[in-house]
């Protein structure tokens, strides 16, 4: 019954049981997906991580592990931490630039006799400062 | 010679050899550091990752692995991918806000008779669009 084994059971050359914990996330036609996570986490740790999660969250966990593993493959030193670092820098730059342009607007508004800031410029700093790293809707999470 | 064992050799209750690959990064007085990465990656995979890197990059690799492991501990579904997703959203918001304020500046400049955009506003979009996720200086990377 080789054709019905998942990628993990195929890799380990073992029978794929009907309730195999890997089967829904590692289909036989995509062995590379398992290869990525297996290289860094190992099948045993992935199995433990899956067992600790409710079934409806397991696919998302595997996708995020695959993403991290791909990043680690491309950058063995920093992995996806490099992306976090880079995004922090970009965000800092964008926010600094935004503060500058808002200051320019305040000056220009004064020049044209409009003392009060426009609604969009007054909202922007509040929006920038009000965000934390949590997401209200976890299903919207970005992977790739 | 128990007191001279690193955290990894202590965990596995084995002798810590003089050239132990783990010893420089997992001192005995910080067993939690190894516990984080061991839980998700396993000692064998960590050893393999270290062996594939030049010695001067190994400490940075261990720090980034610890960071990812801590994130995965806090968020078993998304790990540090949630942070990447959140930063992407914040960056998108900041850049949208920046584009709006730049449009306001252009309008206000026209009102005060300054047709050309100011240097800072004309530079900003170029700066925003010109950044990729690579870092010129890897030693500046952000971890915590």
From TrEMBL, chains A, B:
Q: Which domain of life is it from?
A: Eukaryota
What PROSITE patterns does this protein map onto?
LOB
What Pfam families does its record include?
LOB
Q: Which residues form the LOB domain?
A: 4-105
Family according to the record = Belongs to the LOB domain-containing protein family.
What protein is this chain from? LOB domain-containing protein
Species annotation: Artemisia annua (Sweet wormwood)
């Amino acid at each position: 019954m080789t054709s019905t084994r998942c990628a993990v059971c195929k890799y380990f050359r073992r029978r794929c049981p009907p309730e195999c914990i890997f089967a829904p996330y590692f289909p036989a036609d995509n062995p590379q997906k398992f290869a990525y996570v297996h290289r860094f986490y190992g099948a045993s740790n992935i199995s433990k991580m899956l067992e600790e999660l409710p079934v409806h969250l397991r696919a998302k966990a595997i996708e995020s592990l695959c993403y991290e593993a791909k990043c680690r493959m491309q950058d063995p030193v920093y992995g996806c931490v490099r992306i976090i670092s880079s995004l922090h820098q970009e965000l800092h730059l964008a926010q600094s630039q935004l503060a500058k342009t808002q200051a320019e607007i305040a000056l220009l508004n004064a020049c044209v006799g409009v003392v009060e800031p426009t609604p969009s410029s007054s909202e922007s700093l509040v929006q920038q400062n009000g965000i934390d790293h949590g997401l209200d809707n976890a299903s919207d999470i970005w992977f790739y």
